[in-house]
Amino acid sequence: MVGDFRRAVHLGKFDAGRAFSEFSGSTDQKIIHGHIIKALLESLRENGAVLIQGRPVEFLDFACGNGDTALEMVAAINGVHDAGVNYNGFDIDSRFVERTTEKLTVARQVRNQKIEGINVREADILSDDPFPFQNIPNVLVTVGHALYYVAGAEERPEILEGKFVSIMDKVKAVMGENGLCILTHNSQDCEMAQLRQSVSQGIVPMPNRLIAGAGEELGLRMDGFESTAHLTFPKLSEQQWKDLRDPSKYDRFHNSVHPNFVTMLELMSFIAQRGLGELHREGKLDGFIDQIEEKARTEGHIKNTSGYQFVFSGRRSQHVDLNEAISNAVESIKEKLPEIEAQGARDFEKKRDFGMFR
After folding, report:
1. I need a labelling partner for 60 at 20 to 30 A (CA). Which of 16, 122, 124, 141 fits?
2. How far apart are CA 244 and CA 265, in angstroms?
3. What is the pLDDT of residues 210-242, one digit of tens each?
4. Residue 4 — very low, low, confident or very high, per pLDDT cuts 50/70/90?
């Protein structure tokens, strides 16, 4: 019967979709993100940008994931804008397309969130194809924690830089008059990204400098800041910590049905963005677990610091100075960040207590 409980992670493999879903239920990052977006929109509301009186916000959510961030974003928009939102989401994983659609449908029907349109489709935003929309006025675009995967194995710097320029050029093409794009990704001092960098292959754990360089080359106006969230680890027994170091024990019955053990496997594979069996074969698993175990035992979490980079549309109306509006909003959010992060942590604990991540 052990096979009935097997996931890829029980075999030491990596399932990005499952790992991401486990991560979403173990971090306050999504909730803090929603609070940040609400603060941003409140600041923009009086400037006639993005939020247009009487019209739904046109919201394009690239790499939408399992829908948790979409829910926070939609709630933030509805909290400051009474005309609602037209939601368009995109993700490479068909499971995430289905989950995001389901969650937003429930939010509209049960939680009375004002969502005029829900359109979620399967798409690889890192492909060479142009984005499916062009030149949308007052659009709000988000690209969330997806640009780590731009790189291929052993990518030369000039090729990697060219890929980021290509992606940022597609972002630029989407934004019409007074459009705004919000990119989020791990910052240079993100503990989770530093762990990932120690074992990762073929990804860019901290892409903010490449994004900034691409924006500069394309003449884009950008601003930003950093926000710290936390990835919380489940409690494990001494034997479970030992079993983590031996992938042959992952699918033992007592481990495969233990929620904390399975959660830790998924979180470790999410951090590494690789299968744990592969790390074991390369001799990297013990050192990787040493770092995680120290953090889990002493603090119960690791810091997950996100960089926020705002890209302004080059197309501006005569009535709106988006550059000044965003700059003022960024400064306002920086002042409020400690309060926003603390509130997000409290809200996360409440949701976990009520089992709202399952």
Report:
1. 16
2. 8
3. 888 898 888 888 889 999 999 999 999 999 999
4. very low
Residues 6+ apart with CB under 8 A from 4: none
CA–CA distance, 90 with 7 (Å, rounded to integer):
25
CB distance 20 to 277 below 8 Å: no
Query: In this structure, what are the phi and psi dihedrals at residue 292, rounded to the nearest 5 degrees?
Result: -70, -45
For residues 218-242, one letter each, b for 16 or more C-beta atoms within 10 angstroms of the residue's C-beta and e for the rest, the string is eebebebbbbbbbbbbbebeeebbe
- Exposure letters 259-295 (e unless 16+ CB within 10 A, then b): eebbbbbbbbbbbbbbbbbbbbeeebbeebbebbbeb
What span, in angstroms and rounded, lies between the C-alpha atoms of 227 and 3? 41
Over range 316-326, report the average pLDDT: 67
Average pLDDT over residues 325-348: 92
Provide the token pair at 251. 């699918």
pLDDT, one tens digit per residue, over 259-278 is 999 999 999 999 999 999 99
pLDDT surpasses 50 at 67: yes
Question: pLDDT over 70 for what percent of the chain?
Answer: 93
Angle made by CA atoms 356, 35, 17, in degrees to the nearest 5: 50
pTM over 0.70: yes
Torsion sign across C-alpha atoms 301, 272, 222, 189: positive
